[in-house]
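User: Predict Colanic acid biosynthesis UDP-glucose lipid carrier transferase's structure from this.
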Amino acid sequence: MRANATRNGSPLLSTLILLLDIAAVWISAFTAARWRFGTEDLDGNYATLVLATSLMVAGCSSAVYKSFRGGSWLAMLGRVKLTWLVSCGLLVAWLFFSKSADAYSRLFIGTWMLLMLISLVLERSLVLLGMRWLSKKGYNTKDVLLVGTGPMSADLKRRAKRSSWSGYQIRRVVNAHSLDLVEKLAADNDFDEVWINLGVNDTALIPKVLHALRYSAADIRVVPDMLTYKIMNHGITFIMGMPMLDISASSLGGTNKLIKRIEDYLLASLILILISPVLLGIAIAVKITSPGPVFFRQRRHGWNGEEIKVYKFRSMKVHSEDKNIVTQAQKNDSRFTPIGPFLRRTSLDELPQFINVLQGRMSVVGPRPHAVQHNHHYKELIPRYMLRHKMKPGITGWAQINGLRGETDTLDKMEARVNYDLHYLENWSLYLDLKIVFLTVFKGFINKNAY
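Assistant:
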């Protein structure tokens, strides 16, 4: 078996990172003190505060720490920001509840917190650069035997080559059917890890491959066939102590669900206050230009496919259709009211849906709700179509700001819209929501396909 100094290096690396985190807290404190007080010396109260905060950072960092190896730089930054936010939140809470905030300079505290975040990001980034340098020198490496040529094999090799700092090097690829060769390589113990990647049709081979690897001391991992299953929200959920691979679980669970709900209430309340004069003006215009109600209520599918009633300003004359048929609006549709085309082109007919948001039926941002009859039609034609309902429908969405508004008169158009919706669900973040809201102002209201 070959010697590898990094086989047991993870605890050492994690300890080093915690020490560097603590050092970053103190260095940022000294820098803030120099800028605020003209000296790096910290008296007893300030030194105690910095010590307590450094311990909180170490504790939070340990709680959210994951090995750098195999992770992404952006994921690392996310954990750094989480550590910083929790630590600063605890610090502010302690100052408030202990009524000791007046004993410290607010300018020092604010400067220190900002410098702390910058220092932690720089420190972690330097660690990644150091790991990349070590990998190029032949240290900090893990040789990998890849068993199987499943759909993910090419992607695994590409990622290992691109993420050179991770140290993972796929040294050999062996067909899973070559069990004798797998057993020989395993017995030689020349690899640090073995990754098993089989296509969905070869999963029955896994027990045989594991038996062939019985003499190996390497870490053995199974790579799920994500491409075949088309997994959304690639995660593992523990239920009754059993790990289960999430195939179509919503990304909006726990804290994310709460953040999204708060975002919806704040944005919908603010927007309704700002547009209230516009709502009143449109309501009057609808009423005086066409007999009938101001609002049009249509049944749509909401969260988890439950039926909801969505509000719109009425843009068509009162008419009746077969209850199982919903005819999409078309250009120069004879059913339009005098101001109907204008309301639909500018999306002003959608504004009452902010009321739906406050009712908890919709979100400001999310997949646009389709008529119930359309859902029943397209769910038979488009794979994963119903996954759109893993999130509340939105007034605007990722598909809409990318030009997919209005009539979907072909299957290709609907498939494109669904693909954008699923991309949004898989990549949801508060930042993405705010980006979509901002872009909607410039790109989401008026579209040549909306009528």
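Residues 399 and 420 are 5 Å apart (CA to CA).
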